[in-house]
Specification:
By secondary structure, this protein is of the alpha/beta class. It has helices spanning 24-31, 46-59, 78-90, 105-117, 131-137, 175-192, 194-202, 209-226, 241-250, 257-274, 280-292, 303-311, 342-348, and strands at residues 2-7, 11-17, 36-42, 63-69, 98-103, 123-128, 142-147, 150-157, 162-166, 316-317, 320-328, 331-338. The relative contact order is 0.11. The chain binds nicotinamide-adenine-dinucleotide and zinc ion (ZN).
């Protein structure tokens, strides 16, 4: 088992290893004195892993309830959010009880927001079961639900009490979800760790889950500790996301998030190379990694449409936007560009060099 300690507005540990669900009772008792807990999960994950977690917690003396929402992004809505709050209220949960999010990032964000706001905040323990949630969503304390006007428009920062990543759960992930997570891992490599890129080129991520997740989570820890509320260096984690969010929108959310981020990273990197902001080695390193993980690098939307869709994203900031631009493998910087220049950036990233 590997462990990462986070010192943000709350201190907590992230545990990563095989078979951690079997010790869930003891691991949760170590960090929480809650006598009651609510496991929130979705209808794909709960039937496979729910009972195992529930029986371990019951075995350690806790009174355990469960709440299952339909799988998919559409569950990150106000109805599901209120259904969790009302369940907590009906079950007389108090501020000394806790919520456990056992699932991917959708439930992590939804249950995280419910826990952060029920009675002004009760403890949440994240138990991510997707690769994307393990390396990204479960760590750092961002919680949210969506409005019909856009994603993640309602939420708050609230750090979990612990993050428990049982790498065995990743064995049941569909290939598409595995590759989604791999795109975020490539992102970590590009922004902060060229050695990570080398290691995922020499052996597949799935052969080294514990080590790779540890490295990603440790990178995120550094950004969260230095910039918990995402106004400075934490923005580097958005590499590929400004355009990625635009591609998701233009595809009416049929394009998976990781695939959209992969294309976003590819456009910005090709564009940066053409503008002399990084060398060919940077562009080649990203291309090779995306190809190895069968992630796309191009998409067929006009540059103006892409820029327009990107600029209605919440990260657009007046007339300037923050673009995360690679300077070499393992290093990116935040570049403020006028929003009017974004479509030229996209155009420059359209073609192979
Ligand atoms: N809070 C943050 O910092 C943060 C960061 C990144 C992403 N997110 C959010 O995370 C969400 C995406 O998360 P996700 O990619 O985990 O999606 P998800 O939660 O929808 O999970 C993807 C699919 O995999 C299934 N699944 C989950 N675990 C499984 C397992 N072990 N075996 C088989 N199937 C499994 C789920 O039922 C679902 O159908 C988005 O809403 C995004 O906004 C949040
Ligand atoms: Zn992402």
């Amino acid at each position: 088992m590997k462990q990462v300690h986070v010192s943000a507005s709350r201190e907590y540990d992230i545990l990563i290893g095989s078979g951690l669900i079997k010790n869930a009772g003891g691991l949760i008792k170590n960090v929480s004195s809650a006598r009651k807990c609510l496991i929130v999960s979705d209808d794909n994950v709960y039937p496979v892993y729910g009972e195992a977690v529930l029986s371990r917690l019951t075995g350690s003396g806790m009174t355990v309830f469960s709440h299952v929402v339909p799988h998919g992004e559409s569950s990150k809505n106000a109805d599901c959010y209120f259904s969790i709050l009302e369940k907590l209220a009906v079950l007389n949960f108090t501020r000394s009880d806790c919520v456990i999010a056992l699932c991917g990032g959708v439930v992590g964000d939804l249950a995280g927001f419910a826990a952060a706001t029920y009675m002004r905040g009760i403890d949440i323990i994240q138990m991510p079961t997707t690769l994307l949630a393990a390396v990204d969503a479960s760590v750092g304390g961002k919680t949210a639900i969506n409005l019909k006007q856009g994603k993640n428009l309602v939420g708050c920062f609230c750090q979990p009490k612990a993050v428990i990543i049982d790498t065995d759960t990743l064995s049941s992930l569909p290939e598409k979800e595995y590759l989604n997570g791999c795109a975020e891992i490539i992102k970590y490599g590009m922004i902060a760790d060229s050695e990570l890129l080398k290691s995922i080129m020499s052996s597949p991520v799935k052969d080294n889950y514990e080590d790779i997740i540890f490295r990603c989570v440790d990178i995120k820890r550094g950004f969260v500790e230095n910039d918990e509320h995402d106004t400075g260096c934490r923005m580097l984690l958005n590499f590929g996301h400004t355009l990625g969010h635009a591609f998701e929108k233009l595809s009416s959310y049929t394009l998976p998030h990781g695939f959209a981020v992969a294309i976003g990273m590819a456009y910005i990197t090709r564009s940066a190379y053409r503008q002399g902001l990084c060398g060919k080695d940077t562009s080649d390193t990203l291309t090779n990694a995306l190809d190895k993980y069968r992630l796309p690098r191009f998409i067929d939307y006009p540059a103006e449409d892409i820029a327009r869709a990107a600029l209605i994203d919440k990260k657009a900031d007046g007339s300037l936007i923050n673009l995360i631009v690679p300077t070499m493998p393992g290093k990116c910087e935040i570049k403020k560009i006028p929003s009017s220049e974004l479509s030229n950036w996209v155009k420059a990233g359209e073609a192979n060099d």
